[in-house]
Amino acid sequence: MFSFEVIAKSTESRARAGVIQTSHGDVETPIFMPVGTLGSVKSISPEELVEAGAQIILGNTYHLYLRPGCDIINRFAGLHRFMHWNKPILTDSGGFQVFSLAKLAKISDEGVTFQSHIDGSKHLLSPEKVMDIQACLGTDIMMCLDQCIQYPATREQCRTALKITTRWAQRCQQARLDSQNGSNALFGIVQGGMFTDLRRQSAEELMGIDFSGYAVGGLSVGEPVEVMLEMAEFTVPILPQTKPRYIMGVGTPENIVELVALGADMFDCVLPTRNARNGQMFTRRGVINISNSRYRDDTDPPEPGCRCYTCRNYSRAYLRHLYLARELLAYRLNTIHNIYYYINFIKSMRAAIVADEFESFRKEFYHERKS
Ligand SMILES: [Zn+2]
After folding, report:
1. HSE on the CB side for 40, CA within 13 Å?
2. Strand 112-115 vs strand 122-125: parallel, antiparallel, or unpaired?
């Protein structure tokens, strides 16, 4: 089961609010999806995620296929029960990880062969296999296998990767229709590097296959922010109004505000979780570094007024102490706050879209960061 409905549109920008329905519950868009690559959002429990407001999380096909593997997850009838998370899950196909993590990735017509980054074992990921793995994981939103390329890349490299991505997308869709899992949603991933005509070609070819939603991949791979936004500004409006649009792997709160203004609906990024483990906490006034000596005796919470578990109960001085002492609780408390910050920041942006006050939200957002 999968459907998407736009419930409000900003009259001052392309920002929109919507609802995705899945068999594991509804997701209100725009939405931020915490990253749970290995079947766990690092350092916090599913209950803590729910308390922080998470509605959907991301898992990763490449990682979960290599470890623990489908034979184990099958015994639990999927990832939801294996990891004790009852809300929707989206899984990335693994294309990005094969090209960034695995050794000796080689592309053929069949798929991509590579050596595991864990034990060097050899594997083949084909579009059909990626669909099989995601079906075994039982994810609500599956992603097509795509070819990601590094930045910068030549036009010819981008064109070749685009062609493969379209062919693989057709095979993913066919495999989904041929299997019992036709009811799970499948998103296509637009590639094309930093070339607008290739982005258009990729989007049009994927729309011809008719997916449940569309992602823009290959952004935030090292290009300047202006280029990332330029590519999104060009690509997002081409994609169907009636389908969710997902910008993969982006980004900072500033990036997300700008991408929502362009009409994007879904986001994932490791920033709130990874930065939490590095002592960086997101606040309305920008990022604070909890190890900073100015917080040594600071009795305030990380963000005064924040309703998260961490801010309701702990001070900057205590969090600084935990972080410097490398206490494990530091990672957990910092992560709870950062996830809460991201989710509630987008939630209030959504409320502003529904009230048709998106532009004043955006102004206030930047104003607070300057103060
Ligand atoms: Zn907080």
Report:
1. 7
2. antiparallel
- Which residues, in sequence order, are CB contacts of 314 under 8 Å at separation 6+? 301, 302, 333
CA of 335 to the centre of ligand 1 (A): 9
Q: What is the Cα–Cα distance from 42 to 48, expressed in whole angstroms?
A: 11
CA 308 to ligand 1 centroid distance, Å? 4
Q: Identify whether the C-beta of residue 32 lies closer than 8 Å to the C-beta of residue 343.
A: yes
Catalytic residues: 92, 268
Specify which residues 114 forms β-bridges with. 123
User: pLDDT of 272-290, one tens digit each?
Assistant: 999 999 999 999 999 999 9
Please name the residue ranges forming H helices in 179-250. 196-209, 225-235
Partners of residue 144 on adjacent β-strands = none
Question: Each residue of 282-317: pLDDT tens digit?
Answer: 999 999 999 999 999 999 999 999 999 999 999 999
CA of 310 to the centre of ligand 1 (A): 5
